Amino acid sequence: MSKQEDSDSQPTPFDPAYTQLFSYPKMVRDLLVNFVKQPWVNDIDWDSLHTLSPKFVTKKLRKRESDIIWTAKWQDKDLYIILFLEFQSSVD
């Protein structure tokens, strides 16, 4: 098993709490509005914000699960917002 695969299988004790916290639309909206200081954020249709299944299969046919995937309308197009939440005590 590679170092990357090993680290993927060992979530930090905070992962479930942060995953739950960012499963609320208001938290995702507040995160983007307050920390992503880009004009495109103002054009997101917040009423259309909803989660997608975090489970997927890779090109190598491995089952994987991401933290959280959100989708919303942005200028009448689908926008995908993927939150990769990783809290480390040291640099890789």
UniProtKB/TrEMBL annotation:
Molecular-function annotations in GO: double-stranded DNA endonuclease activity
Annotated InterPro entries: Rpn/YhgA-like_nuclease, Transposase_31
Domain of life: Bacteria
UniProt record, GO biological process: DNA recombination
Domain Transposase (putative) YhgA-like: 12-92
PANTHER family membership: INACTIVE RECOMBINATION-PROMOTING NUCLEASE-LIKE PROTEIN RPNE-RELATED (PTHR34611:SF2), PTHR34611
Protein name as annotated: Putative transposase, YhgA-like
